[in-house]
Amino acid sequence: MPRAATTSDVFNAIAEVRRRDILVYLMPGERSVGEIVDALGLEQPSVSKHLKVLRDVALVDVRRDGRRMFYRANAEGIRPLHEWTSTFERLWRRQLTGVKARAERHTSKGEQP
Q: Phi and psi dihedrals of 59, rounded to 5?
């Protein structure tokens, strides 16, 4: 079965680790392409290609200032990722609650957890 295009949805876009790195780097605020290149140690053409994919699926927004391009994370575009991962957060919360309860039972019996 052929793989879906990286621009088909946010999940395919973030399947590539460098795009995830770029997205995380953009979380605190707007950055220029040059800043992204320097911070992540990637080549400029590669960063530009990754940013295009992220822009195509609305994970980042872009602003032009003269010849410079500035990118920032798009919270609305990231929403589907957050909603999907929150399903697993609930699962882990239940798992951790169970581990905590077992540890507390062992501790109250004087056993080592």
A: -85, -20
Contacts with 4 (C-beta within 8 Å, 6 or more apart), sequence order: 12
Q: What does the alpha-carbon distance between residue 73 and residue 64 come to, in Å, rounded to a whole number?
A: 15
Does domain 1-73 fall under CATH 1.10.580.10? My reply is no
> Cα torsion for 8, 73, 75, 96, to the nearest 10°?
90
Which of 102, 95, 85, 14 shows the shortest CA–CA distance to 50? 14
Band (112; pLDDT cuts 50, 70, 90): low
Distance from C-alpha of 99 to C-alpha of 41, rounded to nearest angstrom: 40
Cα–Cα dist 50/61, whole Å: 13
Distances (CA, A) of 89 to 24, 33, 41: 19, 33, 32
CB half-sphere exposure, 106, CA atoms < 13 A: 9
Q: How many CB atoms lie within 10 A of CB 7?
A: 14
89, pLDDT greater than 60: yes
